[in-house]
Write a structure and sequence with these properties.
This protein is α/β, with parallel strands linked by helices. The protein is built from 15 helices and 26 strands.
Length: about 500
């Protein structure tokens, strides 16, 4: 693969700055920036970072509120051949921050305040960048660093333990863009990507790079009202966490609105048939859901029947805990190989040895191959429950619970018993309008039908989650082990701050 067929994010901005300079590239907080504006901002920022010592191979940490500025900083690092790591303030002073050779931060931790590797993102710096952008040489965005040059360090979700780090090259990011364009719907043309989340999330960053490659508009939006208003005038597509997709569908149904989006890509958990039907009725006839990871990029795209179709170029095996292939149709660990699978976790030899071998990556998910190109995903291997010596797979039971009226989410855990055998503990996040007694009654009926034996049901107003909406099961287990308190209504999520 040559460099010419692996366009960088900055090169895509330069292409459209030359072909359609006045077209909107990014808007945030009501302020729109054209592709020419964005190109000048990236070039000016690259010049400032270069003066600060940013160079090829340097690891640069980025932390700021504004997603637009975060992308400008990341693309400026790309121009200089540096690798960026995007994080939130809480991660800056820990091990993650220590891996960075330079940190660009709006909220500097005390222990970094006097460090020579810290560049503060303040009003003075932003004003300086704005002044330099007026006369910046955008031609430097054409800089090439090779398809295998590192661009970004992505963090895994850390749902069951500490997050791990994976290096993303230009080749991997470009292939992810191509894969999503094939697995979802193509976006070349006059489309608007409605971005509701921070580029700290790797999938969001990839989506933004994809939008810029095809000359789309990237609009950062925080409310459903903004989404509805934009869909009235622009051809939009979006990436939504499951809980937000549910709320958007419910809001549209209540207002008798059909957004007719180009598509919606739903992530965070499996898309239930109920949610898919609601989205198709009110938001879009094209509901996407892909199976992927930071370690592998895209693996498969979801079919109408809940199975996944493995994308071309990806090999999937089902293996046991010793990496031996299981018999056809049997359940086991999902193992993936493709040219885009990472080779290791950064700075973690023990986890790398457990998960990477001869080009294959051992997923933490259970699955089966019902046909040559079909994959059935059955939940995490780590989540298997040992109830009195009997192994119970939570996933099928959880799916039945999630399909119940009034249930936003459900997780099956193990609760201790006096004798030590353990029992099943059903943790349910009910919908705000649900009747708790009805939710418990229906859940008990599912448990009696699908999981004979003792169980307990506990309601949680809101599950602890990662940035991508995945349930933090370890934290939820700690709640299950404690005495449950009274159910409280889920508070509305605050709108993210913007610069």
């Amino acid at each position: 693969m040559t460099d010419q067929v692996v366009p960088s994010g900055a090169q895509s901005v330069l292409k459209w700055a030359r072909e359609r300079p006045e077209a909107v590239a990014i808007s945030e907080g009501g302020i729109a920036f054209s592709y020419l504006d964005l190109a000048r901002q990236i070039a000016a920022t690259a010049a400032v970072l270069e003066a600060e010592g940013v160079r090829t191979g340097l690891i640069v940490g980025i932390e700021c509120r504004s997603p637009h500025l975060r992308m400008v900083l990341a693309l400026a690092c790309e121009v200089l051949g540096a690798v960026h790591l995007s994080f939130v303030p809480a991660e800056m002073s820990g091990q993650l921050g220590q891996r960075c050779q330079l940190i660009l931060a709006e909220h500097a931790a005390e222990q970094l305040a006097a460090a020579d590797r810290l560049v503060r993102i303040d009003e003075q710096l932003v004003e300086r960048l704005a002044a330099l952008a007026m006369h910046a040489d955008v031609s430097r965005l054409a800089a090439c660093h090779g398809p295998d040059a590192g661009v970004r360090i992505a963090m895994t979700s850390g749902t069951t333990g500490a997050a791990k780090l994976v290096l993303k090259s230009r080749r991997m990011l470009s292939a992810a863009v191509d894969g999503y364009d094939a697995a979802l719907r193509p976006v070349a043309g006059e489309f608007t990507y409605l971005c509701r989340y921070s580029p700290t999330i790797n999938g969001v960053y990839t989506d933004i790079i994809r939008a810029l490659r095809f000359g789309n508009r990237v609009r950062f939006v925080w409310t459903f009202e903004e989404i509805v208003a934009l869909c009235r005038t622009e051809r939009c597509y979006a990436f939504l966490l499951t809980r937000d997709a549910e709320e958007l569908a419910a809001s549209c149904r209540a207002a008798s609105v059909n957004l007719d989006m180009h598509y919606v890509d739903v992530t965070g958990s499996g898309v239930s048939m109920t949610l898919e039907a609601a989205l198709k009725e009110t938001v879009t006839p094209f509901v996407g859901n892909v199976y992927s990871s930071n370690e592998t990029s895209l693996i498969a795209s979801r079919d109408q029947d809940g199975l996944y179709t493995i994308v071309p170029g990806v090999e999937v095996r089902i293996v046991d805990e010793a990496w031996r292939p299981v018999k056809a149709g049997e359940t086991g660990r999902i193992c993936v190989r493709s040219p885009l699978v990472a080779s290791a976790y950064l700075w973690d030899e023990a986890q790398s040895a457990r998960h990477f071998r001869d080009g294959w990556f051992l997923m933490s998910d259970l699955g089966a191959l019902p046909a040559a190109d079909k994959l059935l995903v059955l939940g995490r291997f780590d989540d298997m429950l040992n109830i009195g010596g009997v192994k119970v797979a939570p996933y099928p039971i959880e799916q039945a619970l999630k399909a119940l009226p009034g249930v936003r989410d459900a997780v099956l855990l193990r609760a201790e018993t006096a004798g030590g055998a353990g029992m099943m503990c059903v943790m349910i996040e009910p919908a705000p309008e649900a009747d708790p007694a009805q939710v418990v009654r229906r859940a008990a009926e599912v448990m009696r039908a699908q999981a004979p034996g003792a169980f307990t049901i506990r309601l949680e107003a809101e599950f602890p989650r990662t940035d991508t909406g995945k349930v933090r099961r370890a934290m939820l287990q700690a709640r299950a082990d404690a005495k449950p308190g009274e159910l409280t209504r889920r508070p509305p999520a605050p709108a993210p701050a913007t610069a």
